């Protein structure tokens, strides 16, 4: 697990407060989707099939902020669609940072380098760049040549400026233990990103490519082989050790999708950002009116092959927080006491003095 120590402590404190308040269900991270439009058409995507009048909609900043505040979540993953198309994306990020929410701004990186100036490095802000493989594999996955090279250039430029940069890699049946190792070695050792997220692809019903989604057994075999020989310990993976055990099939968990809920232009999505059984206006209503026992593998056929982080990472995170042994294991695997050699100190985006936050809040 490679989450900055201050962020881990803030989230740990938040979980402890929820437990003390005897709150049974609460969000750890909100998947915020302020638009569905994208500048790519990936074959495995289940988000861009909405009609044009929906794709043209943008969530106003004040509505997004109100939803995050009502939920109380300490972390927000801003996704879409492509969030950098949203004309107020920088203001949305600034308002969330002002409220001390830890943000991951997910992007396919096509617009990232051009829009770097709109953002400032902060310990509350991280890029999460979509990277499904090395050049040929990634460009095939996103159905456009040249996107891998653009993403690599944008990651380097962001790191030069002192941003925290993470990546998000989705694996399909095209992948083998070798392709998993190749892309993670490249991101970890050559690009030296701060942390990497990985996920088996979820079988969206609407995705044009239905042939390449992994089943549970295939997912276990893929990650068990890819993680062999100590590679898993070497990579800066942005997951708890228990979630990685889950991907390898060493432990099994039930789905706790209320821990990573989704808020989009339609409202809070029931039960998770992968499946849509309707929308409600508040997180409270989502938690209280959803029959959570209906969902998860073995309960709903649409969940049969799901091992996505939005269902199972909260379960692993809560299991970690409630076990001293697992908490120590997570801390040891994070190597948070080692000095970072990965990002340059934050650089001012323009001539002139650095923004105040760059002085007071060095990168974790
Ligand atoms: S970049 Fe993301 S949102 Fe855009 S088409 Fe690809 S998977 Fe969908
Ligand atoms: S298992 Fe959980 S996270 Fe996965 S699709 Fe079903 S409800 Fe969503």
Q: Could you characterize the architecture of this molecule?
A:
The protein is an alpha/beta fold. It has one domain: Aldolase class I (TIM Barrel, Alpha-Beta Barrel). The protein contains 15 helices and 9 strands. It has a 9-stranded mixed sheet with strand order 6-5-4-3-2-1-7-8-9. Strand 7 and strand 8 form a beta hairpin. The longest helix has 16 residues, at 5-20. The structure holds iron/sulfur cluster (SF4) (2 copies). Residues 38, 40-42, 45, 47-48, 80-82, 108, 130, 142 line the site of one iron/sulfur cluster (SF4).
Shape: globular
Q: From the 3D coordinates, which CATH architecture would you assign?
A: Alpha-Beta Barrel
CATH topology: TIM Barrel
Radius of gyration: 19 Å
Strand order of the largest sheet: 6-5-4-3-2-1-7-8-9
Number of domains: 1
Order of helices and strands: HEHHEHEHEHHEHEHHHEEEHHHH
Q: What structural category arises from helix and sheet content? A: alpha/beta
CATH 4th-level superfamily: Aldolase class I
Top CATH class? Alpha Beta
Hetero compounds: iron/sulfur cluster
Number of strands: 9
- Biggest beta-sheet profile: 9 strands, mixed
Strand portion? 5-15%
Helix content: 25-40%
In terms of per-residue confidence, which ranges show pLDDT below 50 for 5 or more consecutive residues? 336-341, 347-364
Discrete helix count: 15
Let me know the average pLDDT: 88
Distance between the termini: 14 Å
Features:
364 residues, alpha/beta, TIM Barrel, nine-stranded mixed beta sheet, 9 strands, globular, disordered C terminus, binds iron/sulfur cluster
């Amino acid at each position: 697990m490679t989450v900055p120590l201050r962020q881990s402590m803030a989230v740990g404190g938040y979980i402890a407060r929820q437990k003390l308040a005897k709150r049974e269900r609460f969000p750890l991270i909100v998947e915020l989707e302020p638009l569905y439009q994208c500048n790519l058409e990936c074959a495995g995507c289940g988000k861009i099939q909405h009609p044009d009048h929906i794709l043209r909609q943008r969530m106003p900043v004040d509505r997004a902020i109100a939803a995050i505040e009502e939920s109380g979540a300490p972390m927000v993953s801003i996704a879409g669609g492509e969030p950098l198309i949203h004309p107020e994306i920088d203001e949305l990020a600034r308002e969330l940072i002002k409220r001390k929410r830890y943000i991951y701004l997910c992007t396919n990186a096509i617009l990232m380098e051009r829009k770097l100036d709109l953002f400032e490095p902060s310990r509350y802000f991280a890029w999460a760049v979509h990277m499904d493989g090395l050049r040929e594999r990634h460009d095939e996955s996103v159905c456009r040549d040249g996107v891998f090279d653009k993403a690599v250039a944008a990651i380097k430029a962001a790191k030069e400026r002192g941003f925290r940069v993470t990546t998000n890699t989705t694996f399909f049946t095209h992948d083998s233990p070798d392709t998993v190792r190749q892309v993670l070695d490249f991101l970890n050792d050559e690009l030296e990103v701060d942390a990497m997220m990985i996920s088996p692809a979820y079988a969206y019903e609407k995705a044009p490519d239905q042939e390449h989604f992994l089943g549970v057994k295939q997912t276990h075999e893929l990650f068990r082989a890819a993680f062999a020989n100590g590679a898993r310990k070497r990579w800066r993976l942005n997951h708890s050790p228990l979630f990685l055990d889950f991907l390898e099939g060493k432990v099994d968990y039930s789905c706790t999708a209320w821990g990573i809920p989704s808020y989009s232009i339609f409202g809070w999505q029931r039960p998770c950002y992968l499946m849509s059984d309707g929308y409600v206006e508040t997180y409270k209503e989502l938690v209280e009116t959803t029959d959570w026992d209906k969902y998860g593998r073995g309960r709903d056929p649409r969940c049969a092959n799901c091992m996505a982080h939005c269902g199972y990472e909260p379960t692993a995170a809560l299991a970690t927080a409630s076990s001293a042994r697992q908490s120590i294991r997570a801390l040891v695997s994070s190597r948070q006491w080692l000095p970072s050699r990965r990002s340059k100190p934050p650089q001012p985006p323009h001539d002139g003095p650095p923004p105040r936050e760059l002085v007071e809040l060095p990168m974790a």
